[in-house]
Automatic annotation (TrEMBL):
<keyword id="KW-0812">Transmembrane</keyword>
<keyword id="KW-1133">Transmembrane helix</keyword>
<keyword id="KW-0472">Membrane</keyword>
<keyword id="KW-0813">Transport</keyword>
<dbReference type="InterPro" id="IPR035906">
    <property type="entry name" value="MetI-like_sf"/>
</dbReference>
<protein>
    <recommendedName>
        <fullName>Multiple sugar transport system permease protein</fullName>
    </recommendedName>
</protein>
<keyword id="KW-1003">Cell membrane</keyword>
<feature type="transmembrane region" description="Helical">
    <location>
        <begin position="16"/>
        <end position="37"/>
    </location>
</feature>
Length: 52
């Protein structure tokens, strides 16, 4: 996805109206994955913590 964003700023100038839209869409995917798997991330962090 980041390669496609880099290609938007081609040799003849950047499509400035497309760059923020593409950046926003490329940020949505990891956020959705994190929110969907958040309970497993927390469970893994707590399982690996030092118990005292």
């Amino acid at each position: 996805m980041t390669v496609r964003l880099a290609e938007l700023s081609g040799s003849r100038g950047a499509s400035w109206h497309l760059l923020p839209a593409g950046a926003f869409i490329s940020m949505i995917v990891p956020v959705i994955v994190f929110l969907a798997l958040q309970r497993y991330f927390v469970r893994g962090l707590l399982a690996g913590s030092v118990k005292g």
